[in-house]
Amino acid sequence: MSLDLDAIANRLEPRFGRAAHRWVGTLRQRLDDLVEQWELTLGDPLKSGNSSVVFRCVGPLGDAVLKLSPDSYAVREEVDMLRQFASSGRVPAVRESAKGAVLLEAIHPGTLVEKMPQPPSPPEYAAFLTDLHGAGDPAAAPRQLADWIDVLFNSATRRGADLSGSKRLRDDLFAVPTDTVLLHGDLHLGNVLSGGGRGLVAIDPMACAGDPCFDAVDYVLEGLDRAEMVRRRDELASAAGIDVGRLDAWCRVTAPIGATYVSNPVHSAELAAFGRGEY
């Protein structure tokens, strides 16, 4: 298999600096070792972000996905949290793990929900969230929701977001006790796959302990206009048995963050307006 090591190193460099180039220099040998150790037939690389390299492969248990990263701590956390969520049936099974590497069950058809022509219905998404939140021990979470929100706020501030209203709403939400679950934490629809008859499957958790409403936010905010966001908010809250007022507040906390990420200027403006409560 041909690997463009320079392209991989350049993709990882924004996250890991020059250390990315040193790590990529060991990648071929690392792949060879894992292929032998785990009895894999390596396939094509899959598109991934700036923190890992991912390959299709076939192992003793069938189709799989091999993921490697210079950040061995993050891989270890991902493995631990996927195992926490495993009983839900809503995450890929961990087949094998090693320092900086994990072999995961392949999900079929594996279409990203954000790429599906028809999004999941609110009842379908509610069942997904209910299963996910019914598994795992929030005491095992590597961070609290409050800590994760601070990370998101800091990143959005650097991109010019006005978070004054978001911070007031966040403080109001944290002032009222609520249920605490093990959250996926980063449940945008690029981290949710279609699993066919299995239903929706979540990947790449940034797990934290907190309010179950938080994991519902992205499904609401990925509606393309305010009317669709309000419809999703109300129908999802009803189907999932979560407090619509809290879900609305969390959407308004995070909408200005999302407005700094999306490339569609119309959707960005709609998110900003939703954050201001203009609906």
Automatic annotation (TrEMBL):
InterPro entries per UniProt: Kinase-like_dom_sf (IPR011009), NH2Glyco/OHUrea_AB-resist_kin (IPR006748)
GO terms, biological process: secondary metabolic process
Gene Ontology molecular function: kinase activity; phosphotransferase activity, alcohol group as acceptor
Pfam families in the record: APH_6_hur (PF04655)
Coiled coil (residue ranges): none
SUPFAM superfamilies in the cross-refs: Protein kinase-like (PK-like)
UniProt keyword annotations, A-Z: Kinase, Transferase
Identification of the protein by name: Streptomycin 6-kinase
Top-level taxonomy: Bacteria, Bacillati, Actinomycetota, Actinomycetes, Micromonosporales
